[in-house]
Amino acid sequence: MRSFGKAWAIGVALVVAFAILGEVVVILGDYVFHRLGLNRTVVLGALWIFPLAASFVATRYSQDRKLLAGLSFLLIVPLIATSVHLLTGALGANVDFTGITGGRVVFGIYLALNGLVVVIGTILGLLPAGGSSEKV
Questions:
Q1: Where would I find the beta strands (DSSP E) of 67-135?
Q2: 44: closest CA among 116, 110, 92?
Q3: What is the mean pLDDT of each run of 10 residues along the chain (136 residues)?
Q4: Interatomic CA distance for residues 132 and 129, integer angstroms
Q5: Rounded distance, CA 84 to CA 74, Å?
Q6: For residue 87, what are the CA distances in angstroms to 25, 83, 92, 98, 103?
Q7: With a threshold of 0.90, does the pTM exceed it?
């Protein structure tokens, strides 16, 4: 972590928040979201901004190895999200995929869905910052 610095740590914090909030949204029923005037599917989709932001922040603000810092979230997101999912099931929540076999399924789903999101965030982080390049 030392070579990536604070930007990478912020990215990991975003991923942990993504995993925990994702599990909370899944545990809460559609009824709760209906009462709040929200669509549960839209909320779950919006949560995918977290891994995108994590890879963007890690890429944009790392001092060195920018590409590696961003792409490291290709494996970090599925590992953390699967761990939170398994922990949620172990704590007694009703989850779809349980045990080691279920963990492999969840890991595969997160790996597949996460790939595009992290690559987009990394590419956006590598783009030059907007604004004027002239000094005032």
A1: none
A2: 110
A3: 76 93 88 90 91 93 87 94 91 84 92 94 88 50
A4: 9
A5: 17
A6: 15, 6, 9, 10, 10
A7: no
